[in-house]
């Protein structure tokens, strides 16, 4: 098949071939205008071609012309007539069959639903009937590849395209097919390169690859190049650029939502886009219709939305849809693109149902949308529908599945954080913190730059309440800053919470300022989410914030706080909290009313509000602490709490804890009776456990339970409970009780650590009670470990406590400070004199004098100053300090000074002796060095003399000219002796080696031998004797000579 036979598919020659020249039998040529002379009924043209026995190319040219004019049925009639011509050869018939297969693909391109797959089946049937040798050729291979591509069998189509490209690397149809597969597999960069290659090979290729090139650019986030590609396609093919125009309008709609600066710009651009999409609607293009569906949805015209999407569904599945049953969308066999479209239809049906509150139906449609196409929007909608139906766990599972494939989806991360926070599980709360903090980071990152939901900060602040109030404050402050960026403010409740957090951290001044700022914000109108005016809310908020402000004012300005409470009492008479607070201050601070008057007012409140648990709790506290002063029975509080539990509320936690505390007191009082003691503690534990079953976060009950264990000598069990409380509840009392328990267990280091955590994390570092606890802990540790610095630390903390205490509690802390000074003085007097320091003793004496004076002042004060001990005891202790302890310190000081003087004297004496010894040693060393030098000089002189004597002997020997005649035996002996001597010289020291060389130099045995050999008449025994004597003599001298040489040089 030639390239012209495929022109119907590529439509490359539709503008070039405006006419067709057909030769006829008489030799003439008939010209057919393929534009103006194409009749609606091709019978006349097919009859003419059949009568003239026209060639295959003329038949296919006519068919291609009909295709170019979108008359596929007429084109098929032409091809069918051509296939029946008897004059055609087998090759012609094969080419016509392949053409028919391509024509079926063209039909499939314009068909929908089941009809589309019917045409693919027809094309497949055509291919199957082709001879095998024809199937192996490029046109048939391309036909099979295109069939696979249309059926979404991408892995089957790709090797066929590769076969074609192996024979013809510039085959544009195969290149575009591979690009389509790459796009389907989201390999947009590869698809873009293939499409650009097609454009370089054939710039006039149809369908226009510029459309797909633009899509690749868009998916690669290069929107400008995508728009340029589509605009170029529209410019080149203005009459056949529907898809490019739709894509251009989609890009404009995207810009409308993302780049509109003002509301006016948005309205103008959006209206223009919707109008253009209305004009772009066609029977087989569903994108404009879906865009219009979104427009009708925004207008809440849900019926129109349903009509639009159901019409789309009917066109795709090929049968009418009487209702909104999206499940029928999956009944028909559809292509991948059609499945995506049907998924969008189901999504819009779901959103309509969701907007109308039909969450069950919405969930069903969302599920169908996901089954048709696994898309994020439908999953988000499914989770929302499940939430609104109350299926929280199902919603969490849905969102978690989304997060596995879309880890940076802000909406899912935020929703999971909020849902986790609503759980009672500690693990879920940790996950909530992680999710919400990750959401804040993602939204603030450069990739998103999205405004953070204020609720995320509020939930995080709430989650951190039990862990770290500082973090809660931080997130509430960030919420205020986030709203300030858009010139909005957070709800007044947020400011109130900030004030409460500062109050809990003992930052009372800051709390007062925040509450005052919150009060200023209660003046404006308040509206609900629906726009309704909330008339009562400002007043309610004002009452609460005023009360909180008064609570924070109590520390710095109690009088001002009392005025606020009185004002609240006048403005809101039924607000009993302010009344109770006034009565409480009267009891412990102001004493403006007598206890009888306070009791009378409490009786009136109780009569008017008998079931108010807050009033009943306060009455029980008053009866316990001041009942004797107003004539109440000793166990009035116990009876009152029992009445509360029996008559009004059996689960009143305060009453239960109060009863448990009473049992603990009774257990402590029953020290002599172990059985009673255990029984009381057991009852207390039961009550504490009951409170914990009602309120698992009740720290008083939990700690009471731990204390019962500790008091019952189950210290490790109690510490375990307190440790668990600390892990789950970040409260100051937990650390304080842990400190107390560890102190009782004599684990002073851990106790101090817990006290310091309580002081640093929950207060401003000036809490008198905790400072006193630390002083006591350091004191006990110092006494236990006999370490003076620890006692000094106890004194430091006690001084800090005294500096921050009010007048009412100063007497006890003054006594504590004096007591520590006494103990430090006592400790110093018991130390050995050689371990004492003069400055420490003098400081201890000054501190002791101050302590004595302080005790005398306390002994002389009035009873109203809450003196901790009887005056007589204080005076006696002061006298004891001045008469006994102070003199002992003076004695210790004198002994220490004497010891130091003696020590100094001994040190000086030792130093003198050491210096004398050093001088003596230096003198001995110098003498030994001089003597060694003298001896060395003498040895040198002796060696020099020996050297001179050796030279003299050598000269005498030579002058004597002794003849020696060696024998054979002697030679053998010398040879035998020479070899070991040589080895000895090799392995010996340098000194021996030098000696050997000197021997060789001084003596010349060869000369002697030669002199003796020249005298044959010499007597042999005589020669032998002389040689022996000569050698012995010379060797002795030679060895001495060698030693001299070594010593000298």
From TrEMBL:
Q: Is Coiled coil there in the keyword field?
A: yes
**Gene Ontology biological-process entries:** regulation of DNA-templated transcription; transcription elongation by RNA polymerase II
List, as start-end ranges, the regions of compositional bias called Basic residues. Answer: 984-1001
Q: Which residues form a coiled coil?
A: 834-861
* InterPro entries registered for this protein in UniProt: Ctr9, TPR-like_helical_dom_sf, TPR_rpt
Q: What's one GO MF term for it?
A: RNA polymerase II complex binding
Task: List the biased-composition ranges (Basic and acidic residues).
Answer: 933-948
What is this protein's record name? Uncharacterized protein
Which species does the entry assign this protein to?
Diutina rugosa (Yeast)
